[in-house]
User: What shape does this take?
Amino acid sequence: MFRYGRGPDLKRHPLVWAIVLVSVAGLVIYAPALLARASTGSREPINFLTQPQQGWRFVLAAAAEMPSARASTPGRARNLAVAGFAGTAMQPVRVDLLWVPTRRVALLGKGSGVATAKAALVWAVTGREQPGGPLRTIGLIDFRSGRLTYDVSTAR
Assistant: This one.
């Protein structure tokens, strides 16, 4: 284990290999969860750190849909939200990507309810119904098609 004139031979020490193995396993398990957590909005209903398998599902679904998605970036989703609410009193302020495998999205704002999404990857559009009004969920945009699938003004 020790050689004269040198320190310990760490390449052969079992504790070093145990630490490396645990580190690699942690990286394999939690890297997609950390990516999913960083990619989704603050209103994300899934806690990827306590459910790392959901991180894997998110990454696989996003990778499969990304090449053909019309709303694949926050910028595109915001432009679609602005276009979708043009000519109305609605003012989109922010878009947040949500992973909702149950397809149930908790709505933010007055009367806060639940909307059903068309897919597991959706953009939640937060905005105002009138100038100076409170922020609330005013719409949902489908990640793949880029269509506005929920509009608070028609959901009444």
Q: What stands out?
A: The mean pLDDT is 89. The chain is about 35% helix and 20% strand.
